[in-house]
Amino acid sequence: MTTLRPFTCMDLLKFNNVNLDPLTETFGLPFYMQYLAHWPEHFQIAESPSGEIMGYIMGKAEGMGENWHGHVTALTVSPDYRRLGMAATLMSWLEEASEKKQAYFVDLFVRVSNKVAIQMYKQLGYIIYRTVLEYYSGDPDEDAYDMRKACSRDVERQSVIPLTHPVRPEEVD
Ligand SMILES: CC(C)(COP(=O)(O)OP(=O)(O)OC[C@H]1O[C@@H](n2cnc3c(N)ncnc32)[C@H](O)[C@@H]1OP(=O)(O)O)[C@@H](O)C(=O)NCCC(=O)NCCS
Predict the structure, then answer these.
(1) Separation of CA 96 and ligand 1 centre (Å)
(2) Domain range annotation of the chain
Protein backbone atom coordinates (compact mmCIF):
# COMPACT_ATOMS: atom_id res chain seq x y z
CA MET A 1 0.00 0.00 0.00
CA THR A 2 1.22 3.50 -0.82
CA THR A 3 1.30 6.14 1.91
CA LEU A 4 0.95 9.77 0.92
CA ARG A 5 2.26 12.06 3.64
CA PRO A 6 3.98 15.43 4.09
CA PHE A 7 7.68 15.48 3.14
CA THR A 8 10.00 15.95 6.15
CA CYS A 9 13.64 17.04 6.34
CA MET A 10 14.61 13.43 7.25
CA ASP A 11 13.42 12.36 3.79
CA LEU A 12 16.30 14.40 2.31
CA LEU A 13 18.63 11.75 3.71
CA LYS A 14 17.06 8.93 1.73
CA PHE A 15 15.81 10.31 -1.57
CA ASN A 16 18.84 9.24 -3.63
CA ASN A 17 16.98 6.39 -5.33
CA VAL A 18 14.65 8.98 -6.85
CA ASN A 19 17.02 11.91 -7.31
CA LEU A 20 19.70 9.99 -9.21
CA ASP A 21 17.39 10.29 -12.22
CA PRO A 22 19.07 12.67 -14.73
CA LEU A 23 15.84 14.62 -15.24
CA THR A 24 15.40 15.17 -11.50
CA GLU A 25 17.18 18.22 -10.19
CA THR A 26 18.90 18.10 -6.79
CA PHE A 27 19.01 21.46 -5.04
CA GLY A 28 21.02 22.74 -2.07
CA LEU A 29 19.73 22.02 1.43
CA PRO A 30 18.52 25.60 2.16
CA PHE A 31 16.31 25.44 -0.93
CA TYR A 32 14.42 22.39 0.41
CA MET A 33 14.24 23.92 3.90
CA GLN A 34 12.67 27.06 2.48
CA TYR A 35 9.93 24.98 0.86
CA LEU A 36 9.36 22.92 4.02
CA ALA A 37 9.07 26.08 6.10
CA HIS A 38 6.86 28.11 3.76
CA TRP A 39 4.78 25.65 1.76
CA PRO A 40 4.64 22.29 3.63
CA GLU A 41 1.18 21.59 2.21
CA HIS A 42 2.70 21.66 -1.31
CA PHE A 43 5.46 19.17 -0.46
CA GLN A 44 4.21 15.59 -0.41
CA ILE A 45 5.86 12.22 -0.59
CA ALA A 46 4.66 8.76 -1.66
CA GLU A 47 6.21 6.00 0.44
CA SER A 48 6.16 2.22 0.03
CA PRO A 49 5.27 -0.12 2.94
CA SER A 50 9.00 -0.76 3.45
CA GLY A 51 9.69 2.97 3.81
CA GLU A 52 11.20 3.42 0.34
CA ILE A 53 10.54 6.74 -1.37
CA MET A 54 8.39 6.09 -4.44
CA GLY A 55 8.15 9.72 -5.52
CA TYR A 56 7.48 13.24 -4.33
CA ILE A 57 6.19 16.61 -5.38
CA MET A 58 7.56 19.95 -4.19
CA GLY A 59 5.79 23.20 -4.93
CA LYS A 60 4.69 26.57 -3.67
CA ALA A 61 2.05 29.30 -3.92
CA GLU A 62 3.11 32.65 -5.34
CA GLY A 63 2.13 35.69 -7.42
CA MET A 64 -0.03 38.79 -7.03
CA GLY A 65 -3.63 39.43 -8.09
CA GLU A 66 -4.70 37.25 -11.00
CA ASN A 67 -1.18 35.82 -11.14
CA TRP A 68 -1.73 34.13 -7.75
CA HIS A 69 -0.96 30.49 -8.53
CA GLY A 70 0.37 27.14 -7.44
CA HIS A 71 3.77 26.19 -8.85
CA VAL A 72 5.29 22.74 -9.26
CA THR A 73 9.03 23.05 -8.58
CA ALA A 74 9.86 19.34 -8.68
CA LEU A 75 7.95 16.16 -9.48
CA THR A 76 9.66 12.82 -9.65
CA VAL A 77 8.78 9.13 -9.40
CA SER A 78 11.32 6.34 -8.89
CA PRO A 79 11.86 4.26 -12.08
CA ASP A 80 10.61 1.21 -10.09
CA TYR A 81 7.19 2.77 -9.60
CA ARG A 82 6.44 4.52 -12.88
CA ARG A 83 3.25 4.16 -14.94
CA LEU A 84 1.23 3.37 -11.82
CA GLY A 85 -0.49 6.75 -11.63
CA MET A 86 1.84 8.03 -8.90
CA ALA A 87 2.69 11.34 -10.60
CA ALA A 88 -0.97 11.91 -11.46
CA THR A 89 -1.88 11.39 -7.77
CA LEU A 90 0.84 13.77 -6.56
CA MET A 91 -0.19 16.42 -9.12
CA SER A 92 -3.80 16.15 -8.06
CA TRP A 93 -2.69 16.69 -4.43
CA LEU A 94 -0.87 19.91 -5.32
CA GLU A 95 -3.79 21.08 -7.48
CA GLU A 96 -6.16 20.52 -4.54
CA ALA A 97 -3.82 22.48 -2.21
CA SER A 98 -3.77 25.29 -4.80
CA GLU A 99 -7.58 25.24 -5.04
CA LYS A 100 -7.77 25.62 -1.24
CA LYS A 101 -5.53 28.68 -1.47
CA GLN A 102 -7.83 30.07 -4.17
CA ALA A 103 -5.15 30.10 -6.84
CA TYR A 104 -6.08 31.06 -10.39
CA PHE A 105 -3.91 28.37 -11.98
CA VAL A 106 -1.12 25.85 -11.44
CA ASP A 107 2.04 26.05 -13.52
CA LEU A 108 5.41 24.34 -14.01
CA PHE A 109 8.49 24.45 -16.19
CA VAL A 110 9.65 21.44 -18.16
CA ARG A 111 12.55 20.86 -20.56
CA VAL A 112 11.32 20.92 -24.17
CA SER A 113 13.18 17.60 -24.67
CA ASN A 114 11.30 15.88 -21.79
CA LYS A 115 8.66 14.33 -24.03
CA VAL A 116 7.40 11.88 -21.38
CA ALA A 117 6.69 14.61 -18.83
CA ILE A 118 5.14 16.94 -21.44
CA GLN A 119 2.85 14.12 -22.60
CA MET A 120 1.92 13.40 -18.99
CA TYR A 121 1.11 17.03 -18.17
CA LYS A 122 -1.04 17.28 -21.33
CA GLN A 123 -2.84 14.12 -20.25
CA LEU A 124 -3.49 15.83 -16.89
CA GLY A 125 -5.01 18.90 -18.60
CA TYR A 126 -2.03 21.26 -18.82
CA ILE A 127 -1.37 23.40 -21.90
CA ILE A 128 1.85 24.96 -23.15
CA TYR A 129 1.35 28.57 -22.06
CA ARG A 130 4.68 29.90 -23.34
CA THR A 131 8.27 28.98 -24.22
CA VAL A 132 11.03 30.33 -21.97
CA LEU A 133 14.23 30.61 -23.99
CA GLU A 134 17.43 29.10 -22.52
CA TYR A 135 15.78 28.61 -19.13
CA TYR A 136 17.98 25.62 -18.25
CA SER A 137 21.73 26.26 -18.07
CA GLY A 138 23.96 23.70 -19.76
CA ASP A 139 26.01 23.09 -22.84
CA PRO A 140 23.98 24.10 -24.74
CA ASP A 141 21.28 25.84 -22.70
CA GLU A 142 17.80 24.40 -23.13
CA ASP A 143 14.40 26.07 -23.52
CA ALA A 144 11.55 25.35 -21.14
CA TYR A 145 7.83 25.10 -21.68
CA ASP A 146 5.82 26.92 -19.06
CA MET A 147 2.74 24.70 -18.79
CA ARG A 148 -0.48 25.71 -17.05
CA LYS A 149 -3.82 24.41 -15.90
CA ALA A 150 -6.58 26.75 -14.78
CA CYS A 151 -8.11 26.39 -11.30
CA SER A 152 -11.84 26.79 -10.69
CA ARG A 153 -11.33 30.43 -9.57
CA ASP A 154 -10.29 31.34 -13.13
CA VAL A 155 -13.82 31.10 -14.47
CA GLU A 156 -12.96 32.88 -17.75
CA ARG A 157 -9.83 30.71 -18.14
CA GLN A 158 -7.78 33.82 -18.86
CA SER A 159 -4.66 32.24 -17.35
CA VAL A 160 -4.47 29.56 -20.00
CA ILE A 161 -4.60 31.70 -23.15
CA PRO A 162 -1.18 30.83 -24.63
CA LEU A 163 1.33 33.59 -25.37
CA THR A 164 2.16 33.87 -29.07
CA HIS A 165 5.82 34.72 -28.50
CA PRO A 166 8.64 33.19 -26.42
CA VAL A 167 10.01 35.04 -23.40
CA ARG A 168 13.42 35.28 -21.71
CA PRO A 169 13.93 33.91 -18.16
CA GLU A 170 14.22 37.45 -16.75
CA GLU A 171 10.72 38.22 -18.05
CA VAL A 172 9.21 35.36 -16.03
CA ASP A 173 7.72 36.59 -12.76
C1 LIG B 1 7.34 12.11 -15.63
C2 LIG B 1 7.13 11.20 -14.43
C3 LIG B 1 6.99 12.08 -13.19
C4 LIG B 1 5.83 10.39 -14.63
O5 LIG B 1 5.56 9.65 -13.45
P6 LIG B 1 4.57 8.39 -13.45
O7 LIG B 1 4.18 8.11 -12.03
O8 LIG B 1 5.17 7.28 -14.22
O9 LIG B 1 3.32 8.96 -14.25
P10 LIG B 1 1.83 8.40 -14.17
O11 LIG B 1 1.85 6.91 -14.01
O12 LIG B 1 1.06 9.16 -13.14
O13 LIG B 1 1.31 8.74 -15.62
C14 LIG B 1 0.19 9.58 -15.87
C15 LIG B 1 -0.01 9.64 -17.39
O16 LIG B 1 1.11 10.31 -18.00
C17 LIG B 1 1.44 9.65 -19.25
N18 LIG B 1 2.76 8.99 -19.15
C19 LIG B 1 3.51 8.82 -18.04
N20 LIG B 1 4.68 8.20 -18.35
C21 LIG B 1 4.64 7.96 -19.67
C22 LIG B 1 5.54 7.35 -20.58
N23 LIG B 1 6.72 6.84 -20.18
N24 LIG B 1 5.19 7.28 -21.90
C25 LIG B 1 4.01 7.79 -22.31
N26 LIG B 1 3.09 8.38 -21.49
C27 LIG B 1 3.42 8.48 -20.20
C28 LIG B 1 0.36 8.61 -19.46
O29 LIG B 1 -0.69 9.23 -20.17
C30 LIG B 1 -0.06 8.28 -18.06
O31 LIG B 1 -1.35 7.77 -17.96
P32 LIG B 1 -1.61 6.19 -18.27
O33 LIG B 1 -0.52 5.41 -17.58
O34 LIG B 1 -2.98 5.97 -17.71
O35 LIG B 1 -1.52 6.06 -19.76
C36 LIG B 1 8.29 10.18 -14.27
O37 LIG B 1 8.53 9.56 -15.51
C38 LIG B 1 9.58 10.81 -13.79
O39 LIG B 1 9.81 10.92 -12.57
N40 LIG B 1 10.45 11.27 -14.72
C41 LIG B 1 11.74 11.86 -14.35
C42 LIG B 1 11.56 13.22 -13.68
C43 LIG B 1 10.76 14.16 -14.54
O44 LIG B 1 10.87 14.22 -15.76
N45 LIG B 1 9.93 14.98 -13.86
C46 LIG B 1 9.15 16.01 -14.49
C47 LIG B 1 10.02 17.23 -14.61
S48 LIG B 1 9.06 18.66 -15.00
Answers:
(1) 19
(2) 3-171
> Per CATH, the architecture of 3-171 is what?
3-Layer(aba) Sandwich (3.40)
Element holding 135 (H helix, E strand) = strand 127-136
Q: Which atom of ligand 1 is nearest to the CA of 120?
A: 16
**Ligand 1 binding pocket includes 114 (Cβ within 6 Å):** yes
pLDDT tens digits, one per residue of 96-111: 999 999 999 999 999 9
C-alpha angle 74-48-43 in degrees, rounded to nearest 5: 30
Give the DSSP H/E element, type plus range, for residue 46. strand 43-47
Q: What are phi and psi of 46, to 5 degrees?
A: -110, 125
Do 44 and 5 form a contact (C-beta atoms < 8 A)? yes
pLDDT computed for residue 148 by the predictor: 98
Give 10-residue mean pLDDT values along the chain (173 residues): 95 94 95 98 96 97 97 97 97 98 98 98 98 96 98 98 97 87
